[in-house]
Write a structure and sequence with these properties.
The complex is a heterodimer of chains A (254) and B (311). By secondary structure, chain A is mainly alpha-helical. Chain A has one domain (2-250). Chain A contains 11 helices and no strands. Chain A is globular, with a radius of gyration of 19 Å. The longest helix of chain B is centred in the middle third of the chain and has 16 residues, at 162-177. The two termini of chain B are 32 Å apart. The chains are: A mainly alpha (254), B alpha/beta (311).
C-alpha cells in the first residue's frame, strides 16, 4: 500500500514536470474554448439553433481534446518509454510488480483529465456563460465511460508499439482521426449524417457528452437515425472492455 | 555458506540455445565474476537467477530459494542492477531512492546509501541531468536499497570513463565488505581480475573454467616471460644453459627469455654472474586477457568496441 501511494505520488510529480502534456492535455482545452469564445461570430445565436450559440454546441469538443490527448497520446507514450528503457524490467526484479507503475500512471492520467474538464467547465461558465452540464450524473457517466474507451484504444497502442516513437506515431494518428470525428476540424453540425453517426460509435462518444451537457445542443448535433443515450453509453462500455482485453492479451512487459 | 547455486542451467529461445549447460556455486561474502564474450550466455544466466527467465532445465538456488517458485521472497533478498535499464528522465535522485526503498520489507536507510554513493549533492537533480558515472551509482544504489544479501551487477562500468570506473570498483569492494555477496557480470578483464575472488569463464553457453583470477592465469599459462636490454655483448648460452629457461630471443639489444619457475631471479642471477648490467629488466605479467584467450580461443572485447550491446 505504501509502495502504491509512493508510486502515485512520484508519477504525479513526473506528470507535472512534463510541461508539454500539462499545457496541451490539461490547459489547452480551456484556452481553446476561451480563444474561440473571443470571436464575436461564434457568440451569436442564430434563430435556427433555438438561441444556442456556436460556442455552446462546440464546447464538448474542447473537452474531448484533452481526453484524447491524455488517453491516446500521453499514456501510451509513457508506457512505451518505460518498456523501451527497461524501467518495467527493472521493476520486475523488485518486490513491486511493474503492473503497479501502469496503474499509478493511469490514476494520474485520469486525475489530470478530471482536472482539465473541471477547469474548462468552470471557466466556460464564468467567462463565456456556458451553463454547466444539465444532467451531471449522465454527464459523469458519459465522461468516465468515454474516457475508459479512449484509454482502451491507447492501451492497445501501448501494447503493440515496439518503441516510444512508434507509440507516438500511432497516438498522433488516433488523435487526428478521433478529433476529426469529434468535430475539432469541422463542427459536427456541418458534417453529413454518416460522419456524425460514426461519432456515436467512436470513443469517447461525443454525442453522449453533448446531450448530457445540454439537451438542446444534443438535439442539434443528433442525427435522425441516432442511437438513444444509454445505448451509446453501452457501446462505449463495450469498446472499453474489448479494447482493454485486446491490450491485455498483447501487452509485453519488455 | 552457499549464497547462490546454479546447476546444469539450460535455456533456449526457439532454435537458439542461449545457455547450454552452466553450473557454479557462489559462497556468501564473495565477489564472484562471470566473464564471457557477447552472446556467451552471461545475460541469460543472470536473468534466470533474477527470475526474469524460467530455465528449460537445471536448477537455481538463491539463498536456498527458487527464483521462480519463491519469486516474492527472492525479490526481497536479491538486489539486481541490470544492463540497459534506466529511470524516467524527470525523476530526481532522492525520489527514485525513496520510491524503490518503499518496495521492500526491510530497506536500508536510503539517505545513508545516497551518502555512501556520493549522491547527496545530487539529491535534487533529475536523472536526465546526471553524468554516466552518477547514473551508474544511482543504479547500484537502487540495487542495494532493499538491503539484499546477494546483489547482481551486470556490466557495471560499461560507458564510464577510467576515473569513474575506478571509483565504482572501490565502491563495490565497500559493499562486499558490508557483507553482501556480489555476482559481477562483465566483459572487462581488468575489472573481473581486480574485483573478483573467483571467476567463471563462460563460453558458448558453458562454463569453460572456474577459479581465482591468479588460478585462471596460472592454469592458462605456466610459462613466464622476462624482458631486458643490454648494451654490452652477451653470449646467449649464459641463459640457454639454465634448466628453467625454455627459449631465448634476441632482437638487437632486446632480449626475451621464456621459462618456468622464479624466472626473474634466475635470469637476474645469471646476468650478475656474467657481470652484465641489464636495463629495463622486467617480467611480462600474464593477465586475465591471456587466460581468457586460452580458455575461449578468442580475444576479449576491447572497451572501445563494446559500448552498448544487446546480448
Amino acid at each position: 500500500m505504501r509502495a502504491r501511494l509512493k508510486m502515485v505520488k512520484v508519477e504525479t510529480k513526473l506528470f507535472l514536470r512534463d510541461s508539454a502534456t500539462v499545457i496541451f492535455g490539461v490547459l489547452f482545452p480551456t484556452g481553446l474554448l476561451l480563444g474561440l469564445g473571443a470571436i464575436p461570430a461564434l457568440r451569436e445565436s442564430p434563430p435556427e439553433t433555438g438561441g444556442l450559440r456556436s460556442i455552446d454546441i462546440w464546447a464538448p469538443t474542447a473537452l474531448v481534446f484533452g481526453m484524447v490527448m491524455i488517453a491516446v497520446q500521453h499514456v501510451p507514450a509513457v508506457i512505451a518509454t518505460y518498456r523501451e528503457r527497461g524501467i518495467l524490467r527493472r521493476l520486475s526484479t523488485t518486490p513491486a510488480h511493474p503492473r503497479s507503475v501502469l496503474l499509478a500512471q493511469m490514476i494520474v492520467a485520469f486525475a489530470s483529465v478530471v482536472v482539465s474538464a473541471a477547469l474548462m467547465i468552470f471557466l466556460a461558465w464564468a467567462v463565456l456563460d456556458i451553463a454547466p452540464p444539465e444532467r451531471p450524473l449522465e454527464f459523469a457517466v458519459a465522461f468516465v465511460v468515454g474516457y475508459a474507451a479512449l484509454l482502451g484504444l491507447g492501451m492497445i497502442s501501448a501494447a503493440v508499439a515496439r518503441t516510444s516513437s512508434a507509440a507516438n506515431q500511432i497516438g498522433t494518428f488516433l488523435f487526428v482521426a478521433l478529433m476529426f470525428f469529434g468535430g475539432a476540424f469541422l463542427p459536427r453540425v456541418l458534417m453529413p449524417d454518416v460522419l456524425r453517426e460514426a461519432g456515436e460509435f467512436l470513443p469517447p462518444g461525443l454525442q453522449t457528452l453533448t446531450a448530457a451537457w445540454s439537451a438542446e445542443a444534443g438535439e442539434i448535433t443528433a442525427t435522425a437515425g441516432g442511437q438513444p443515450f444509454w445505448l451509446q453509453i453501452a457501446i462505449m462500455a463495450g469498446v472499453a472492455v474489448t479494447a482493454s482485453a485486446v491490450a491485455a492479451k498483447f501487452f509485453r512487459w519488455e | 555458506m552457499t549464497a547462490l547455486e546454479v546447476r546444469n542451467l539450460h535455456k533456449r529461445y526457439g532454435q537458439h540455445v542461449a545457455v547450454e549447460d552452466v553450473s557454479f556455486t557462489v559462497e556468501a561474502g564473495e565477489i564472484f565474476g562471470i566473464i564471457g564474450s557477447n552472446g556467451a550466455g552471461k545475460t541469460t544466466t543472470v536473468e534466470s537467477i533474477a527470475g526474469l527467465r524460467t530455465p528449460d532445465s537445471g536448477s537455481i538456488s538463491v539463498l536456498g530459494l527458487d527464483p521462480v517458485k519463491d519469486r516474492a521472497e527472492v525479490r526481497e533478498r536479491l538486489g539486481v542492477q541490470l544492463q540497459e535499464s534506466s529511470l524516467p528522465d524527470a525523476i530526481k535522485v532522492a525520489e527514485a531512492l525513496e520510491l524503490y526503498s518503499s518496495f521492500y520489507r526491510d530497506p536500508v536507510d536510503w539517505r545513508e546509501l545516497m551518502e555512501l554513493l556520493g549522491l547527496t549533492e545530487k539529491r535534487n537533480t533529475r536523472y536526465k541531468a546526471l553524468s554516466g558515472g552518477q547514473k551508474q551509482r544511482l543504479s547500484i544504489a537502487l540495487a542495494l536499497v532493499g538491503n539484499p544479501k546477494v546483489a547482481i551487477l551486470d556490466e557495471l562500468t560499461t560507458g564510464l570513463d577510467p576515473q569513474a570506473r575506478r571509483d565504482t570498483w572501490g565502491l563495490i569492494e565497500q559493499v562486499r565488505d558490508s557483507g553482501v555477496t556480489i555476482l559481477l557480470v562483465t566483459h572487462f578483464m581488468d575489472e573481473a581480475e581486480r574485483l573478483s575472488d573467483r571467476i567463471a569463464v563462460i563460453d558458448g553457453g558453458r562454463v569453460a573454467a572456474v577459479d581465482t583470477p591468479a588460478g585462471l592465469i596460472a592454469q592458462a599459462s605456466a610459462m613466464q616471460r622476462v624482458r631486458f636490454r643490454v648494451s654490452q655483448p652477451l653470449d646467449s648460452s649464459v641463459l640457454t644453459e639454465l634448466s628453467d629457461v625454455a627459449d631465448v630471443e634476441v632482437t638487437g639489444d632486446r632480449w626475451l627469455v621464456t621459462g618456468r619457475g622464479q624466472l626473474l631471479s634466475i635470469v637476474a642471477g645469471a646476468l650478475a654472474r656474467a657481470q652484465v648490467v641489464a636495463q629495463d629488466l622486467r617480467v611480462d605479467r600474464r593477465n586475465l586477457d591471456d587466460a581468457f584467450v586460452a580458455f575461449t580461443g578468442r580475444a576479449p572485447e576491447s572497451p572501445e568496441r563494446s559500448e552498448r550491446k544487446a546480448d
